[in-house]
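A sample copied in:

***
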Amino acid sequence: LPAVEREALLAALARIVSQHTVYRVKGFVAVPGKPMRLVVHGVGTRFDSYFDRRWAAGETPQTHLVLIGHELDQAAISAELDQLGAR
């Protein structure tokens, strides 16, 4: 994913968790205008996020998420997350 706003991402993840059997969400997020990476961690419907460090020299700020669950519909989840980049 490209850089995304924190609140929009957390809202999208909450929708995804409510519609799919997602147990955990983990990842690093590039937030527009922020020089630090945002850590996102979710268990069930509870999410935590915080900035941990600056993006390292030579490191491309990108959003990378891992969703752990049961029989996840990758296409539907990807479509939901892709809408964040279109905003």
User: Anything to note?
Assistant: The CA atoms of residues 10 and 47 lie 8 Å apart.
